[in-house]
Amino acid sequence: MATELFEKQKTIDLRKKHIGPSCKVFFSHDPIKIVRARGQYMYNEKDEKYLDCINNVAHVGHSHPAVVSAGFKQMELLNTNSRFLHDNLVQYAQRLQATLPDKLSVCYFVNSGSEANDLALRLARQYTGHKDIITLDNAYHGHVSSLIEISPYKYKQLADKEQNPHVHVALSPDVYRGKYREDHSDPATAYADNVKDIIDKAHGNGHKIAAFIAESLQSCGGQVIPPAGYFQKVAQHVRKAGGIFIADEVQVGFGRVGTHFWAFQLQGDDFVPDIVTMGKPIGNGHPMSCVVTTREVAEGFTSSGMEYFNTFGGNPVSCAIGMAVLDVIEQENLQSNALDVGTYLTELLEQQKGKHPLVGDIRGRGLFVGVELVKDRAKRTPATAEAQDVIYRLKEQRILLSADGPHRNVLKFKPPMCFSKEDAELAVEKIDQILTELETVLGMGLSSTAVSENGSSKRKVSSEENGHHAHANGKGHYSQPPTAKSSKRIRT
Amino acid sequence: MATELFEKQKTIDLRKKHIGPSCKVFFSHDPIKIVRARGQYMYNEKDEKYLDCINNVAHVGHSHPAVVSAGFKQMELLNTNSRFLHDNLVQYAQRLQATLPDKLSVCYFVNSGSEANDLALRLARQYTGHKDIITLDNAYHGHVSSLIEISPYKYKQLADKEQNPHVHVALSPDVYRGKYREDHSDPATAYADNVKDIIDKAHGNGHKIAAFIAESLQSCGGQVIPPAGYFQKVAQHVRKAGGIFIADEVQVGFGRVGTHFWAFQLQGDDFVPDIVTMGKPIGNGHPMSCVVTTREVAEGFTSSGMEYFNTFGGNPVSCAIGMAVLDVIEQENLQSNALDVGTYLTELLEQQKGKHPLVGDIRGRGLFVGVELVKDRAKRTPATAEAQDVIYRLKEQRILLSADGPHRNVLKFKPPMCFSKEDAELAVEKIDQILTELETVLGMGLSSTAVSENGSSKRKVSSEENGHHAHANGKGHYSQPPTAKSSKRIRT
């Protein structure tokens, strides 16, 4: 068992003193101190166990011994830059390539999803000679300057937001809450046509499209699953305009969706992006990521005459760790576990939808699942405060879940891939209890699903968002109306 | 001894197939395959030993056991994001802070020097409300989009370079080759006045300065040591304009300069930057870095309303490794070793200057040393091809050195900090031999230092630059005239 160096309060005080105040903790009124973790479980300083339903970085399980051992062995031997030949680099590239369509054959190793997406933009702009980027509404692609610009999820938070004229925002292909819904005859075409309209308008203004970028499934954007065929149609429009298609798999890749290794493959075998970016799960927590593209795009980038060098990217340790992650996914059948457990979890949640009026929509692929809470099923009124209350109460039960999306009312499941059916049962059982309690307080029943906004706002509602801000108490006593502050979002 | 998975040629072939062609190797005609390293030595697949004079990332020595062990122990226990409280994060921040002036007290942990410098720009722009950045000529600050824009070292390579109107390039404060030289009565003021002129001109055009950014010692820019007092004067001008001062210590920090822990401290105790960025040596090769700033700037960043989250930044493993690096620097007296050995190395090189007309200038601080080669001491004509030949021939002698600067004629010493006097003697002895051979071929002697450019260009001169491009043979037989291609630069 791990020991604690400082008393918890001292840790909090030092954090306030020395860590940037923009860097937020979970559950700020009573943040959690975690000292060790294993598999899908995390342990606090009192050795109390938490079930982790949100950490898509600890992909094959926290501190997986095979991954740790691979990292250790390589660290002992050599950790240097990619200006020297090393077998790990090429072997790892070869193995990643084997998971992808043939034409995605050239890798650039970098250190984070942000570095990967930034490089993807550089590749696209250099290859096409164009400048403009089309991004989706509510998208988040990373924290460096060039990515904040294409992340409405982030820049909409700014008081003095300034939209880059070379960035265009397309409709999020959300068939539950978006413009074209499940009752539309062809939402894939309708959403793709919106991209086409944007291209036409940009052309009219003398702009040229370098790329369309989207997460294969929008994560922060609210666990959105685009209708199949949407990417093919968008790619057609974008390529016709001389642009390319970037699939951001930073949050959703590496077998999480269960049926496929990459989430873009959900769209069908006839869809191949021009660039795929990877991140979070790739090294099970080790800082690394990758951009994979076609020979054509890679050659186009070279033609600029500018070399690309990344100090840490592709070092032998990162590559050894990356290969160990691929090994574990394979040896422990984690992709098929994601499918089995994810399907089971979705079924259990669907049953909750039958019981609880607060549950508006259940959507998921493998162990990427969203539960959208609403105050009114007909109007689909986001149950923002309720979602925050659920995650706070779950925390009291030692279950870690988060809420996200533009209205922060979507409970996000994206646990380590070793998540079990028993874990799913436990989480859903607790959610069931909490929703029952909440609905009792709110006077909601399936017979009274059309609870009006006025009706529920009579009660004082917590403004918490993933526990960011002060919460009166953990027992679900509502204390404050939603404030402007509560519109800040969190990404895990 | 490490084993090889692939034959060297197979490694090369796989690299060509799967790694972005913009990612260059050292010595492309016969790249080196390194399989293990320890201290300041690297070993190829035949277990042949190379002396590493260039790796400022393996700061406390390659694969230092204390650093490896710290990483391993923490990896076994926990590696997660900074949304949970963890003692490593706050303890490490506290320890870094203790190396800095008091007012630099707030840390943001990120994954690379590029992420650090990009965040520094975001902090500066948000805090000041201004947009424009002043950078130095020949500067390199990183590979993400926002940093290519402020890196003349990189963007000058582009065929279709497009200067961002919000970026202004100041003179490099190079007293050997710059506008104001060692014979100038006050180069610090003269170079700072150039920054003032830029500010005035920007104001005249309605632009406002967010920040001045400079490496505390320019590395890729040619191992440039700004005259003392220059930063103070620049800071005065920039702050008067409402901007802030960013000191980039990514290449030169952590005791390398010997007399001080941070290179900006060479300017005098009265100088404190508003932001310091760290990188390469911070984790001895582990992908991590840090931005440290003042409480004021940090609060200004928060006021935007936008949270900052970095998935891997500040994880417990990175922090454990960072602390182990600080421990080793202290326990092994590496800062004082850098001073002793660096001084000794500089003395040995000064002796070479007395012997070899090719040596135009020796400059250094601790284990950051530059040897500028010239074909003509009076005209200071850059000996570009000769510098490349020196590093190629050193490679044959199993000594790794690189050449950089705008004319790629500056030999760069920036070895692991455990570099010894014996290592210095060996490297200088080999350089002596090589320069003697070269000068014989070139017909140069100290009595004939004014060898004309025509005189030397009668010979076919190698176009190699750090071995990037094909080299006819390793024995120093000049094969090709310099080509446009040879103007590409390399950063190690």
Automatic annotation (TrEMBL), chains A, B:
Region (Disordered): 449-492
Enzyme class: lyase
Cellular location(s): Mitochondrion
Signal peptide start-end: none
Domain of life: Eukaryota
Record field: catalytic activity: phosphoethanolamine + H2O = acetaldehyde + NH4(+) + phosphate
Gene Ontology MF, one: transaminase activity
Pfam families the record matches: Aminotran_3
PROSITE patterns assigned to the protein according to its UniProt record, in alphabetical order: AA_TRANSFER_CLASS_3
Assigned GO CC terms: mitochondrion
EC number, UniProt record: 4.2.3.2
Cofactor: pyridoxal 5'-phosphate
Matches recorded under InterPro entries: Aminotrans_3, Aminotrans_3_PPA_site, PyrdxlP-dep_Trfase, PyrdxlP-dep_Trfase_major, PyrdxlP-dep_Trfase_small
Keywords: Lyase, Mitochondrion, Pyridoxal phosphate
PANTHER family xref list: ETHANOLAMINE-PHOSPHATE PHOSPHO-LYASE, PTHR45688
Similarity comment: family membership: Belongs to the class-III pyridoxal-phosphate-dependent aminotransferase family.
Function in brief: Catalyzes the pyridoxal-phosphate-dependent breakdown of phosphoethanolamine, converting it to ammonia, inorganic phosphate and acetaldehyde.
Record's subunit section: Homotetramer.
Name by which UniProt lists this protein: Ethanolamine-phosphate phospho-lyase
